Amino acid sequence: MATTLESESKVKIWANSGDSHILEPDNLWHDILPKDLADRMPRTERVSETEEIVYVDGSSFSRQLPRSVNKKLQANVRGEELEGTLNDLSHRPPGARDVKARLADLDGEGIWGEVIYPSVGIWDYLVTDPKLIKVAFREVNEWRLAEVQNFAPDRWVVAPTIPLMTVEDAMDEVRHVAEIGFHCIFLPCDPTEGAEDWNSEVWDPLWSLLEEIGLVITVHLGSERGGTKLLGRGPGKAVYNYVETTYGPQRFATKLIASGALDRHPKLRVLLSEAGASWVPFLGDRMNEGYRQHGFMVAPKLSRSPKEILYSQVYATFQHDVSAVEAATCGYRNVMWGSDYPHMEGTFGHTQETLHELFDHVDPELRKRITIDSFRELFPHVPAPAGD
Ligand code: MN
Fold it and tell me: At a CB cut-off of 8 Å and minimum separation 6, what does 59 contact?
């Protein structure tokens, strides 16, 4: 038995990641936009070891930064004994900004294909000037394609941002990004301030277009309309605020299902990144209960149960949760692993350890489903890693 486990632990597990990021160059906006426009786009300024200020078009908010992250901290989160101190500080993987170094990092970690979101660009959706957004998003999407996706087009699925002040603006950019070679679009948990909410029928032409051209909707946590205004204070705030970020993607899925948007567009698929996956069975049951028990006021009626729609059209990523693997054994097949590279919540430096802990005792077919196949179901142009 010990021999088997020992040999298992030496085998490299390759996994696709449905949740990764690129750190943008500090001067990105000034490199691609005129100064007066670039000055208004999101930027961060570190003011102390543990705090940065995020500036967005004339307003700003403060953000706490990790003092440290290391394998020992991750071990502690997994319930193991914490040894040593937490002062060996937040490290940044070599490939966080450099695409060539990134491939080397990924090969070392055993990460194959990736959905790549922005980092600072998560807050691009807080900008509300429609003219500014249209110009800025067009330019930054061109940059993302040329400088990131095209470096490894068979492995990297970069998520472009889409202007959301009107559905027409959104559709213009969706047509453009599809034409130039993107495979998905990044939508925020809430539409930009001033735009209609996701359950509104005004978005139906956008859903139809996405379904027709086959682009996947990718949603990343932390992109709520309120930004950090939603953060709690006081005792327990670190864990409370971390958990709070889980709900935005759940609300996104609930709105698209309850409003009938996914039912009317059965080929439309949604990837929810970094918010875990074990809540999906719960949400499916809860929506079914609401649909049944409050049936007298349910509108619109759906052709399939909310849970069936959720299970078939929504995919969800997790990094460390053992219960996410278990969710895949109770009928929810669209569980997807994600590394969150190069962010501190992710697995850089301990990816193989994490994958072995998660999957060494799991049926190989289920492991392959979560690490490789659910990703390739959304992005079939990404080949399987060698050996899988
Ligand atoms: Mn992430």
Answer: none
In terms of CATH architecture, what is 4-42+95-378?
Alpha-Beta Barrel (3.20)
For residue 93, how far is its CA from the centre of ligand 1 (angstroms)? 15
Asked whether 336 and 277 are in contact (CB, 8 A), the reply is yes
The total of other beta-carbon atoms located within 10 Å of residue 252's CB is: 25
Rounded distance from Cα 219 to ligand 1 centre (Å)? 10
Cβ proximity of 136 and 41 under 8 Å? yes
Using only the alpha carbons of the chain, give its radius of gyration. Answer: 21
308 CA from centroid of ligand 1 (Å): 26
pLDDT averaged per 10 residues in sequence order, the chain, 388 residues: 54 97 95 97 89 89 67 46 37 89 96 97 94 97 98 98 97 98 98 95 98 98 79 87 93 98 98 97 98 97 98 97 93 97 92 97 96 98 84
- Rounded distance from Cα 115 to ligand 1 centre (Å): 10
Domain borders along the chain are 4-42+95-378
Q: How far is the CA of 132 from the centre of ligand 1 (A)?
A: 26
CB of 111 within 8 A of CB of 153?
Answer: no
Q: Is the pTM of this model over 0.90?
A: yes
Q: How far is the CA of 343 from the centre of ligand 1 (A)?
A: 7
